[in-house]
Q: What sequence folds into this?
């Protein structure tokens, strides 16, 4: 659920966290996984040592209104209510200090982009399994009430485990930002770049 955010130790770039920064009072940043125009994604650990993914929107990309925190919380709560084996569970979220943050379970494995770049080849059976899992996750989002759009499916957001499991990361995060009025819908295509 919604939790209070502690004071953040940040780099000079809005939305960026330094290694060792504490987010939402209990998640300690370990490393940056990737930076995009709209958000940065980090690997972090909670107090029990569990690995989590911290998705932090860049403050310089957000337009915040007086009711944005409540609207964001409602929109992310709708995303968190969607359960599917190919969607990581959401653990916490908040929008204090003008930076929307979403914390989810960090699934072990490599991104589809890493597999394509490193291995250069994916067997047809694996392609069918990946597409089926991603399609099933999108189906779960689209059939939620209200329907949720992913708005950013890309090889970086598809995680593959060594034992063959597939996860679709960041399902509905951009949808929550648009629904809360924090970004304009026209900004969404740049999210995937």
A:
């Amino acid at each position: 659920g919604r939790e209070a955010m502690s004071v953040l130790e940040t780099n000079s770039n809005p939305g960026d966290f330094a290694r060792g920064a504490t987010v939402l009072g209990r998640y300690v940043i370990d490393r940056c996984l990737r930076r995009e125009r709209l958000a940065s994604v980090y690997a972090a650990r909670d107090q029990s040592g569990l690995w989590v993914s911290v998705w932090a929107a860049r403050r310089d990309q957000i337009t915040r209104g007086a009711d944005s925190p409540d609207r964001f919380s409602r929109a992310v709560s709708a995303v968190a209510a969607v359960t599917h084996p190919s969607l990581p569970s959401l653990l916490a979220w908040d929008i204090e200090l003008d930076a929307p943050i979403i914390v989810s379970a960090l699934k072990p494995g490599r991104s589809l982009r890493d597999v394509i770049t490193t291995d250069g080849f994916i067997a047809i059976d694996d392609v069918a399994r990946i597409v089926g899992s991603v399609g099933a996750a999108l189906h779960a989002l689209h059939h939620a009430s209200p329907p949720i759009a992913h708005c950013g499916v890309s090889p970086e957001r598809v995680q593959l485990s060594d034992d063959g499991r597939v996860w679709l990361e960041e399902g509905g995060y951009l949808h929550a930002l648009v629904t809360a009025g924090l970004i304009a819908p026209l900004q969404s295509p740049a999210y995937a770049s």
Summary: The radius of gyration is 16 Å. The CA atoms of residues 69 and 95 lie 6 Å apart. Residues 1-12, 187-193 have pLDDT under 50 and may be disordered. The first helix runs from residue 68 to 80.
